[in-house]
C-alpha cells in the first residue's frame, strides 16, 4: 500500500495561495497519464528540472511507456519542485512526490533520473534530498530505492558516479525494463543490495560505479584506465546499448497532455535516430550512431493517430537532423495533404544549410514566414573544415537567397567561439560571413520590403565534450573569450546585424563537468550545499559558488576546463565506450589539424568509426539520401 500525499499537497497549495507559482506543476490526472495502482513493482522516472521543462522530454516519455508495458510494473513521473514549492514542502514535512499517484519518491522500488546536461547535476541532489533518499550510494540501505541514471552525461559518468547505484550507457528501451525485471526478481528472492548491484554490473551497457576503484592520474596513464574492477567477473570497459528495433517500431509514442502551457508543448514524432555528419565537436552525433530511419508510412500514421489522441494542433518531426531523412519530402507532402484546411501545423526542429533545407522549411511553413535558423558554426572555410562541418559559404548564401526569395525576412546564424585552432582571422570571418549573407538577403528581397530584413548572429563558447574528437582540447580562458567576442562586435560594420553571445561563466562549469573525473562529484555536492541548483537558470547560477566548491575540494577549476592533452592521454571516461574506436577519434583530431574533412557515411563510404562492426549494428535507411 503506497502513501497518497495528495491531501497534504492540496492543502499546501490552497493555503499557500499566490506564494506558490504555477500550482499546475504539481497536479496529476493530465490527459494521457497511465495509472497502474495494482502493480506490485513501482518505478519513478525523474527529469531533473521543473515540470514545464521536463514534461515534454522524450526520454522520460519513452522509458515510462516501456516500463508500463511490463505486466505487474508501473512507471510514474516526477520533476524537481521550484524553490517556492520546495521551501513550503520542507516546512510542511512533505517529501518529493510522483505525479500520477502523488506518492513519496522514496517509496518506489527504483528511481530513474535522466541526465540531459551538466548543469542538471545539482538538481539531482536537490531531488534526492527532497525525497529523503541518501545522496550517495554508499549511505543507502536495503530499504532505499535503487537509483538509476542514463542520458548524455553518462558519456562521462564520473562526476555523477557516487550518487547513482546504476548507470546505463546508450539507449534505454530494452535495458531499463530488463534491469527492472531483474531487480524485481531479486527483491522477491531476498537478494541483498550489494549482490543485486554485482549482478547488474554484468548486464551489457550497465555501469555500477561503486564496484570500481579509481586510480591516480599517473597510474591511469600507465594502465590505460582510471578504474579497477573490484570483481574479476565485471567488465573493464562498458559498451553502450543500441535498440535495434527502433527503425521498425511504432513511431507513435503515447504522450501526456499537460494542463499548463509548456516549452515544446506539441506532439513529437521521432522520425530517425543518429547523425553521422561527423561534426567533431558534437557529442550527440557520436552518441546516437548508427543512423536508423523509420518509414514514411509509419511516421505519417503516427502523426495522424497522435494528433487524434492528444488534441494537439501541431506535430514536430524530431531527430538530430530531420531534413536528412531519405523520405522527408514525401513525409511532409503527405502530412500537408492530410492536414490541409484543419489548422494543424507541422514543424521541423532545424534547417539543413542548403537549398533543400529551405525547400523543406517552405513545405512546413504554410502561409507563415517566421524566422529561419542556420548553423555555419565557424566564420571561415578553414575552420569549418577543421570542425568537419562539411558546408561552404556558398551553401549558406544559397540557403539565405532561397529563403528570402521565398518570403522569409528574418534569419539567425549560430556560431561557436573558441573552437580548436581558431585565430583572430576566423573571428573576423564571422563578421564578414554574416555581412555578406545580409547582402545576399537584401538582393533577394524586393526593394520595398528590405526594411523588414532582420539578421542576427548568436555565439556560444566552445565546450569540449567527452567522447568526441575534440575531447582532448581545452576551453579558452573566459578573458580570451570576451576579447574574441569584442573583436567580433567591432568587426561587424552593419548596424542592421545583431550580435548575441552567451556569457562564458556557465560554459566554464559545463567544461569542468564534462572533462572532470570522479573527484568532481565532491564539487557537485559542495556546490549544492552552497545553495546551487537550477544552474541552467541564469538568475540561479553563481560562478563564485562553483569556484569556491572546487577550491574546497582541491579541484583545479580552470585546469580541468582549459587544459589541452595529447591524443594519447587517457581521459577519465576511457572505460565508457560508444563503440567508436579511440583511433577514430585520434584520426579525426589529426584531420582537424590538417583542415581535412570526413564524409557522412550515410551519403558516401564507411568511415570506419567502429560502431557498426563493434556493436553488431548497421545503418538503416528507407531510401537514398539526397
UniProtKB/TrEMBL annotation:
SUPFAM superfamilies xrefs: Radical SAM enzymes (SSF102114)
Cross-referenced PROSITE patterns: RADICAL_SAM
An MF annotation (GO) of this entry: iron-sulfur cluster binding
Pfam families, alphabetized: Radical_SAM (PF04055), Radical_SAM_N2 (PF19864)
Location of the Radical SAM core domain: 261-498
Top-level taxon of the source organism: Bacteria
Protein name: Fe-S oxidoreductase
Amino acid at each position: 500500500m503506497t502513501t497518497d500525499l495528495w491531501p497534504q499537497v492540496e492543502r499546501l497549495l490552497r493555503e499557500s495561495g499566490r506564494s506558490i507559482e504555477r500550482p499546475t506543476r504539481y497536479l496529476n490526472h493530465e490527459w494521457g497519464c497511465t495509472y497502474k495502482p495494482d502493480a506490485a513493482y513501482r518505478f519513478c522516472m525523474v527529469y531533473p528540472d521543473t515540470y514545464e521543462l521536463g514534461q515534454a522530454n522524450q526520454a522520460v516519455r519513452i522509458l515510462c511507456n516501456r516500463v508500463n508495458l511490463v505486466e505487474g510494473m508501473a512507471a510514474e513521473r516526477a520533476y524537481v519542485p521550484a524553490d517556492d514549492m520546495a521551501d513550503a514542502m520542507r516546512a510542511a514535512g512533505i517529501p518529493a512526490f510522483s505525479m500520477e499517484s502523488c506518492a513519496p519518491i522514496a517509496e518506489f522500488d527504483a528511481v530513474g533520473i535522466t541526465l540531459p546536461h551538466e548543469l542538471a547535476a545539482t538538481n539531482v541532489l536537490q531531488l534526492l534530498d527532497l525525497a529523503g533518499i541518501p545522496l550517495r550510494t554508499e549511505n543507502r540501505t536495503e530499504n532505499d530505492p535503487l537509483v538509476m541514471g542514463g542520458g548524455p552525461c553518462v558519456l562521462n559518468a564520473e562526476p555523477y558516479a557516487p550518487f547513482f547505484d546504476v548507470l546505463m550507457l546508450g539507449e534505454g528501451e530494452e535495458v531499463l525494463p530488463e534491469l527492472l525485471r531483474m531487480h524485481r526478481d531479486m527483491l522477491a528472492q531476498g537478494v541483498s543490495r550489494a549482490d543485486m548491484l554485482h549482478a547488474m554490473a554484468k548486464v551489457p551497457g550497465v555501469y555500477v560505479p561503486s564496484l570500481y576503484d579509481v586510480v591516480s592520474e599517473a597510474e591511469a596513464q600507465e594502465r590505460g584506465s582510471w578504474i579497477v574492477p573490484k570483481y574479476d567477473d565485471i567488465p573493464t570497459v562498458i559498451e553502450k546499448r543500441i535498440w535495434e528495433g527502433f527503425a521498425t517500431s511504432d513511431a507513435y509514442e503515447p504522450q501526456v497532455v499537460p494542463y499548463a502551457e509548456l516549452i515544446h508543448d506539441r506532439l513529437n514524432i521521432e522520425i530517425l535516430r543518429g547523425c553521422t555528419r561527423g561534426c567533431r565537436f558534437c557529442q550527440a552525433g557520436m552518441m546516437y550512431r548508427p543512423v536508423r530511419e523509420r518509414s514514411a508510412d509509419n511516421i505519417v500514421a503516427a502523426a495522424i493517430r497522435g494528433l487524434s489522441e492528444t488534441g494537439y494542433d501541431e506535430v514536430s518531426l524530431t531527430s538530430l537532423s530531420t531534413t536528412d531523412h531519405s523520405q522527408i519530402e514525401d513525409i511532409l507532402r503527405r502530412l500537408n495533404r492530410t492536414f490541409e484546411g484543419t489548422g494543424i501545423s507541422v514543424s521541423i526542429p532545424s534547417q539543413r544549410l542548403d537549398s533543400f533545407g529551405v525547400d523543406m522549411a517552405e513545405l512546413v511553413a504554410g502561409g507563415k514566414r517566421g524566422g529561419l535558423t542556420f548553423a555555419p558554426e565557424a566564420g571561415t572555410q578553414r575552420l569549418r573544415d577543421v570542425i568537419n562541418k562539411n558546408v561552404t559559404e556558398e551553401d549558406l548564401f544559397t540557403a539565405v537567397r532561397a529563403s528570402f526569395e521565398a518570403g522569409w525576412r528574418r534569419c539567425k546564424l549560430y556560431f561557436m567561439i573558441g573552437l580548436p585552432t581558431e585565430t583572430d582571422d576566423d573571428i573576423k570571418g564571422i563578421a564578414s560571413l554574416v555581412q555578406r549573407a545580409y547582402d545576399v538577403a537584401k538582393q533577394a528581397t524586393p526593394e520595398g520590403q528590405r526594411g523588414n530584413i532582420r539578421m542576427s548572429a548568436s555565439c556560444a563558447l566552445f565546450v569540449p565534450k567527452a567522447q568526441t574528437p575534440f575531447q582532448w582540447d581545452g576551453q579558452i580562458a573566459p578573458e580570451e573569450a570576451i576579447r574574441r567576442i569584442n573583436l567580433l562586435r567591432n568587426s561587424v560594420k552593419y548596424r542592421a546585424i545583431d550580435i548575441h553571445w552567451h556569457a562564458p561563466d556557465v560554459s566554464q562549469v559545463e567544461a569542468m563537468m564534462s572533462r572532470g573525473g570522479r573527484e568532481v562529484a565532491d564539487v557537485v555536492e559542495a556546490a549544492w550545499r552552497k545553495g546551487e541548483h537550477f544552474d541552467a537558470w541564469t538568475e540561479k547560477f553563481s560562478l563564485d559558488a562553483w569556484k569556491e566548491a572546487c577550491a574546497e575540494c582541491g579541484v583545479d577549476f580552470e585546469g580541468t576546463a582549459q587544459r589541452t592533452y595529447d591524443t594519447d592521454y587517457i581521459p577519465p571516461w576511457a572505460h565508457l565506450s560508444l563503440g567508436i574506436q579511440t583511433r577514430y577519434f585520434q584520426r579525426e583530431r589529426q584531420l582537424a589539424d590538417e583542415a581535412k574533412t570526413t564524409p557522412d557515411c550515410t551519403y558516401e563510404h564507411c568511415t570506419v568509426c567502429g560502431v557498426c562492426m563493434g556493436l553488431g549494428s548497421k545503418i538503416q535507411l528507407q531510401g537514398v539520401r539526397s
